[in-house]
């Protein structure tokens, strides 16, 4: 669905672009990212409103976005699967019972995963320099470590979920 819409829109945009300075494939790739992320955000916020956990859902979403931005992470393919799993994970975080033990475990595991695997899927797929990627990794680590002070079970769980995406597993799209 997302690929088909991106294919049609990128085809239209490519035909309308007289300069042809961007390839149709690049446009399609960008549109897939925009549509996937847009759907995840829209669905997550709507579900948060309807399930009565809007603020908690927003905190979960912001936490995952922050770690993914700084540490990277692998993507599921096809994009609609990414939308479904991401939306489900983000909206379920507020319903996980609060536990000091789980908060500390999730924070500790997030720190380990970030230290070992970050930056994931960024070096080959962005133009970010190696020194900047290193700073982004350290920033993700410090951000995750901040939850040792905050002690938020929602942040801990969201960081843990985002950190799991740093691990390369079968069925993950590596943009190759």
Automatic annotation (TrEMBL):
It holds the Pfam family AgrB. The keyword Cell membrane applies. The keyword Hydrolase applies. It comes from the Bacteria. Keywords: Cell membrane, Hydrolase, Membrane, Protease, Quorum sensing, Transmembrane, Transmembrane helix. InterPro entries: AgrB. The chain crosses the membrane at residues 29-48, 102-120, 141-169. This is Accessory gene regulator B family protein.
